[in-house]
């Protein structure tokens, strides 16, 4: 509608009523073209995101020298959780095998994803979260896997601190040995220190929830299949926040 109005106004200024009609028609045409371009762009992002998800996952799972049965099971479970079609599942399996291959170019794959997802910071964090979940499937993150995850993060323009935050988020939502450790992980997951004020903690929580809202990520190109993963992350953020609130007696 905006382009129709702008085109009509410009046309009217130049050629009166006839110019208004022509300008509005031209604005409508521009609007249609832009919609198609944007849709095509989102489709490209979605295809690259899905392909890179499983290719990088294959490489990370092999980083410690062996792909465990638990890691393979996690990838297969992800196929089901994402409700992949038969065609998508076949492509995902091929991508996973491609990532495990000795000649797989991890940095090039990550660079391609970074290009198509440029500016979509929360989407890239979601990508990293999926990778972390996969390599932690066997109950531990091997140092070689952690180092490769940091390498992937840096290739995406993310920091090592963000990797640590995602690891804390995972630990905070899992069965940590003690409440104190869970609380420590909860603070780290929100990116705040234990001596932060209640208002700072609330701001950090609201910022993270806004950045990771599934609808917002979908609008930036996150495949609909990945919605459940995004929703899980917001639940983990909420779990960390609720623990801090409970301990502090926050309203």
Describe the secondary-structure layout.
Elements: H1 2-61, H2 69-81, H3 86-100, H4 106-116, H5 121-135, H6 143-155, H7 160-172, H8 179-190, H9 198-211, H10 214-219, H11 227-248
Helix pairs in contact: 1-3, 1-4, 1-5, 5-6, 5-7, 7-8, 8-11, 9-11
Please characterize this protein's 3D structure.
- This protein has one domain (2-248).
- 77% of the residues lie in helices and 0% in strands.
- It has helices spanning 2-61, 69-81, 86-100, 106-116, 121-135, 143-155, 160-172, 179-190, 198-211, 214-219, 227-248.
- The model is unreliable at 2-41 (pLDDT under 50).
Q: Care to give the gist of this entry?
A:
The protein contains eleven helices and no strands. The protein is mainly α.
Kindly provide the radius of gyration, computed on alpha-carbon positions and rounded to a whole number of angstroms: 22 Å
The helix tally amounts to 11
Sheet with the most strands? none
Count the beta strands: 0
Helix and strand content put the structural class at mainly alpha
Number of domains: 1
* Beta-strand residue percentage: under 5%
List keywords for this structure.
globular; 251 residues; disordered N terminus; mainly alpha; single chain
């Amino acid at each position: 509608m905006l382009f129709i109005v702008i085109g009509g106004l410009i046309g009217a200024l130049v050629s009166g009523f006839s110019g208004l009609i022509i300008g509005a028609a031209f604005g409508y045409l521009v609007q249609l073209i832009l919609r198609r371009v944007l849709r095509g762009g989102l489709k490209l992002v979605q295809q690259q995101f899905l392909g890179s998800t499983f290719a990088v996952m294959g490489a990370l799972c092999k980083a410690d020298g062996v792909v465990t049965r638990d890691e393979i099971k996690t990838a297969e479970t992800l196929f089901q959780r994402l409700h992949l079609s038969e065609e998508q599942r076949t492509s995902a399996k091929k991508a996973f095998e491609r990532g495990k291959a000795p000649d797989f170019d991890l940095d090039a794959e990550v660079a391609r994803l970074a290009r198509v997802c440029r500016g979509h910071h929360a989407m890239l964090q979601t990508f990293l979260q999926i990778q972390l979940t996969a390599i932690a499937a066997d109950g531990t993150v091997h140092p070689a896997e952690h180092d490769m995850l940091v390498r992937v993060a840096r290739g995406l323009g993310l920091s090592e601190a963000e990797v640590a935050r995602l690891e804390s988020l995972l630990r905070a939502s899992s069965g940590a040995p003690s409440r104190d450790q869970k609380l420590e992980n909860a603070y780290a997951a929100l990116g705040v220190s234990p001596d932060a004020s209640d208002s700072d903690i609330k701001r950090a929580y609201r910022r993270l929830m806004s950045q990771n809202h599934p609808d917002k990520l979908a609008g930036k190109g996150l495949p609909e299949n990945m919605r459940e993963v995004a929703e899980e992350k917001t639940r983990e953020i909420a779990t960390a926040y609720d623990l801090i609130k409970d301990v502090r007696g926050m309203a």
